[in-house]
Structure formats: C-alpha cells, structure tokens
Design goal:
248 residues; alpha/beta; Carbamate kinase; two-stranded antiparallel sheet; 9 helices; 38% helix; binds uridine-5'-diphosphate
Length: 248
C-alpha cells in the first residue's frame, strides 16, 4: 500500500487538543538533499497537517530556516551576526510560503504571518487577527521567527504558542521522542516517555534551545516531541497514540 493510501486507510481516533502549534525545522523540508526544499517532502508534511486539520483541530505552524540559512553559520564565516540572523529569518519566510502553497493545493486555507512586515508577500503579525484566522479554521504559518536576531525559531514557536493560547507544542523531528543521547549515534540511547523542563535544561537534552524550554516551562506549555517520518503520525500523536515524549 502506498504511503498516502496507508495514512488515509488508518482510522484516526478523536483528537485530544483543540488548538496546537506544530514546529518543524527547516531541514525537515529538504528530504535527503543537503540543502533547500524537496517538494515531495513538503507535500507529505502538508498531508500530515491536513489530516489533523480535518479533525477540526486549529493549527499554528512555525518552520525553521536551517535548510537554507542559519545565522550562526553566516557569523562563523565572518558575516555580521545580526545581518546573518535576518537572512535566517528570511529563509523561514520562504519555507512558510512553500508550506502555504502545498497546503492550499490540498484545499486547506492558510495565512502566512510574518514577524517582519512584508506586505506584498504575507500578513504582518497582529495577534488578534491571527486568533481570528484560527477560529475560522485557517492554518496560521508564523514566519520570520520572533523578528529579532539572537533568537531561534524554537523560541518563536513557544512565543506564538503562548500568544495563540495553544494547548501544546508538537515538535516534529526525525526521531520519536527525547533520548538521553543521540539515538542516531548511540544504539543504547534510552527514550523518555516523559521528562521535566528542568531535566531537559540541566541535562542539555536536545529538545529545543534553552530559552524556548524556559519560556514553555514558565507558561506551563507542554512540548510533545514525535517523529514526522511515520505516515499518519501527527494525527495519531494529537490523539495521544504512538510513540512520543512529553516535556512538562
Ligand atoms: N532567527 C533569528 N531570530 C528568530 C528566529 C530565527 O535570528 O527569532 C534566525 C537565526 O539566524 C536562525 C535562522 O533564523 O539560525 C533559522 O532558524 P532556526 O535555526 O531556528 O531554524 P531550524 O534549525 O529550526 O531549521
């Protein structure tokens, strides 16, 4: 059975959440390529988002920019850090537009909402307007991070999830949760079912960067780490099924 048929054939249990934020890294969109966007991968993730949207869940998204540009790598090559960070933020806008296009092809209405106004391309961020979009079941893709250098899109995701009153952040990754060490490199790595914010910070567990975890902790926002590589996985996780780690 093909990947799409498989995802569609599986009965989806009712969701446990009514409003969530999905955070994915830019690298999640590049497939097996070393750089940029891989349209079949973007489409596959868009189908995952649609399957959750079809259940009536209101969805926010934040997508990183690491598949195109990271501020730190620019700075490491001698570029001024804030300029490099702005380039990173622009990269996230490109990814957001790619996701918008993929979702709208599937018939899901969306808005790209940028922290840095660029009116010809997308909407500027106005909190109340974004909330209204969610109420009208439009997927809100928040772009340009927080709009500030020295931050990451993990922090942007936590910030927007708080502002939009999301019940949880879903962090889609290549692995099915948080491990005590990198499971790609260590066969004996152990996955946590549940881990506290403070343990993540103290043990430097690779969930999100420290400022994002602290912001989630201070606002009691759970972070659910799961694998986006499983077809139908996002809908399952939103229903509390499958393998994941909850950080709370
Ligand atoms: N960035 C920034 N401020 C923000 C969010 C992002 O300066 O609020 C820049 C930063 O340079 C970062 C780049 O955008 O390296 C891409 O974001 P990120 O590294 O979080 O992407 P991901 O690793 O999730 O793909």
């Amino acid at each position: 059975m093909g990947e799409i048929a498989e995802a569609e054939a599986r009965p989806t249990p009712p969701p446990r959440y009514s409003r969530v934020l999905l955070k994915i890294s830019g690298e999640a969109l590049m497939g097996d390529q070393g750089y940029g966007l891989h349209p079949p991968t973007v489409n596959r993730i868009a189908r995952e988002v649609k399957s959750v949207h079809d259940l009536g869940v209101e969805i926010c998204m934040v997508i990183g920019g690491g598949n195109i540009f990271r501020g730190l790598s620019g700075a490491a090559q001698g570029m001024e850090r804030t300029t490099a960070d702005y380039m990173g933020m622009l990269a996230t806008v490109m990814n957001a537009l790619a996701m918008q296009s993929a979702l709208e092809t599937l018939g899901v209405f969306t808005r790209v909402i940028s922290a840095i106004p660029m009116d010809q391309i997308c909407e500027p961020y106005i909190r109340r307007r974004a909330v209204r979009h969610l109420e009208k079941k439009r997927v809100c893709i928040f772009a340009a991070g927080t709009g500030n250098p020295y931050f990451t899109t993990d922090t942007a995701a936590t910030l927007r999830a708080n502002e939009m009153a999301c019940e949880a952040i879903f962090k889609g990754t290549k692995v099915d949760g948080v491990y005590d060490k990198d499971p790609m490199q260590h066969a004996d790595a152990v996955r946590f079912d549940r881990v506290s914010y403070d343990d993540c910070l103290a043990r430097h567990l690779k969930v999100m960067d420290a400022s994002a975890i602290a912001l989630a902790r201070d606002n009691d926002l759970p972070i659910i780490v799961f694998s986006l590589d499983e077809p139908g996985g996002f809908a399952g996780i939103v229903a509390g099924q499958g393998t994941y780690t909850i950080v709370d």
